[in-house]
Amino acid sequence: MQLLTLDLEDDYSLIGIHSTEEDYRLAYLINKHLKTKFVRFKHHLDFKDSNAEFPMFEYKDDINFINYYLINNKDIQLENDKNNEGLFGGNYSTTYYLIPEKKKVDFFLKIEGCNSQSFSIKLVENLNKINQIITSYSIEPSILKSKNNLIF
Q1: Residue 35 maps to a domain
Q2: Is 111 within a domain?
Q3: Does 106 fall in a domain?
Q4: Backbone angles phi, psi at 120, to 5 degrees
Q5: What is the pLDDT of residue 92?
Q6: Which residue from 100, 147, 105, 152 is spatially nearest to 127, judged by alpha carbons?
Q7: pLDDT at position 7, please?
Q8: Can you give the pTM of this predicted structure?
Q9: CB under 8 Å to 34, separation ≥6 — which residues?
Q10: Rounded to an integer, what distance in angstroms lies between the CA atom of residue 12 and that of residue 67?
């Protein structure tokens, strides 16, 4: 009996964004400069085997049938260790990453419905015009080890 394998291509584009702004502020700036309408998604992106929650903003362009998702790559959780009073006791933080191999990326912009390279290049150019964005660039999803974290 022959084994049938299903190979799904990535049907979305991905842009990495470096910025020191908070997620809600970045969504506001993108809305202001690119005339989008990002709104906070009612649920955080989370996983069964982890305590991490990644805030997400969504914009659905119903005219062009394109969905945009702005996702925070980092979740910093403050831990309070009351049991350890010694030299290393007290509060500490744990950082979780949505895509661990891209730890320097602050946000991801996932675009579903338009896989055109020229569209992505133009979008990156427009994002880089925003002063609060340090840089942005296209990322090839197929090379990411943890690309399954972007399937929701």
Answers
A1: yes
A2: yes
A3: yes
A4: -65, -40
A5: 72
A6: 105
A7: 46
A8: 0.81
A9: 123, 126, 127
A10: 9
